[in-house]
């Protein structure tokens, strides 16, 4: 008898995604990371859940850093390798 995997709602904080699950996007990873930080800072989690959330946070942080680095490299390629100042106007 097989059981179906648990469904995950977008705002469910009861069980975070596993550390090995990739984030859907940079924005989703950042949102989940912010939620994890709030949970960790609250200091109300049992030790095993604290460790799980810390590990997931570390994985999300690495994902976000990798995405930012990839975008930075793309910008440098588009600008011919020359870093130019940002002009928001």
TrEMBL record:
Catalytic reactions of this protein: Exonucleolytic cleavage in either 5'- to 3'- or 3'- to 5'-direction to yield nucleoside 5'-phosphates
Pfam families according to UniProt: Exonuc_VII_S (PF02609)
Database matches in Gene3D superfamilies: Exonuclease VII, small subunit
Region (Disordered): 1-21
EC number(s) stated in the UniProt entry for this protein: 3.1.11.6
Assembly information from the UniProt record: Heterooligomer composed of large and small subunits.
Protein name listed in UniProt: Exodeoxyribonuclease 7 small subunit
Species this chain originates from: Hydrogenophaga palleronii
Lineage of producing organism: Bacteria, Pseudomonadati, Pseudomonadota, Betaproteobacteria, Burkholderiales
């Amino acid at each position: 008898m097989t059981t179906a995997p648990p469904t995950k709602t977008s705002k469910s904080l009861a069980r975070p995604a596993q550390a090995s699950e990739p984030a859907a996007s940079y924005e989703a990873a950042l949102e989940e990371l912010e939620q994890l930080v709030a949970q960790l800072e609250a200091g109300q989690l049992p030790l095993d859940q604290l460790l799980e959330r810390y590990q997931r946070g570390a994985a999300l942080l690495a994902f976000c850093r990798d995405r930012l680095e990839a975008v930075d490299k793309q910008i440098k390629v588009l600008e011919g390798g020359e870093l130019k100042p940002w002009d928001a106007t």
